[in-house]
From TrEMBL:
Top-level taxonomic group: Eukaryota
Stored Gene3D superfamilies: YVTN repeat-like/Quinoprotein amine dehydrogenase
Key words of the record: WD repeat
Keyword Secreted carried by entry: no
The organism of origin for this protein: Micromonas pusilla
Entry GO CC: THO complex; transcription export complex
Gene Ontology biological process terms, A to Z: mRNA export from nucleus
Coiled coil, from the record: none
InterPro entries: THOC6, WD40/YVTN_repeat-like_dom_sf, WD40_repeat_dom_sf
Stated name of the protein: Uncharacterized protein
Keyword Nucleotide-binding in annotation: no
SUPFAM superfamilies: WD40 repeat-like
Length: 130
């Protein structure tokens, strides 16, 4: 908490506010749907304020959601299959790129974050982890 009796340090205060905000909430800034490498399944990737890139297998997520509905568990969370610490700070952009439509292994996900870094991930690696 900010103490008005102490010397004001804007950097420390900004860090404290950011830490408190990220501890209590997470905002999704970017989403992209993409196909898995060599697979028919669809995937969803989200970039958030925590700096994480979260990946869901849509077939699996929908199956788990339907099973929860059938059992009457309305509050069941469908969690991502893969979470990558992509950036120091928020992820503001997630883009799917397929340079060669005939080569499923060439598919990439690109993230851009508050830290000024752009990362590339092979879809095949993310899908195998999911």
């Amino acid at each position: 908490m900010f103490d008005c009796r102490a010397p004001y340090n804007p950097g420390a205060y900004a860090s404290l506010v950011k830490e408190e905000r990220s501890a209590s909430s997470r905002t999704v800034y970017a989403t992209v749907f993409f196909a898995g490498a060599g697979a028919s399944a669809g995937y969803l990737a989200c970039g958030s304020s925590s700096g994480a890139l979260s990946v869901w297998n849509l077939d699996d997520a929908l199956g788990r959601a339907r099973a929860a509905d059938a059992s009457g568990d309305d509050d069941a969370a469908v969690l991502p299959r893969v979470i990558v610490d992509a950036h120091d700070g928020a992820v503001y952009s997630v883009v799917s790129y397929e340079p060669d439509a005939g080569d499923a292994d060439s598919r990439l996900l690109c993230t851009a974050g508050e830290d000024g870094v752009t990362n590339l991930y092979r879809v095949a690696d993310l899908v195998s982890a999911a």
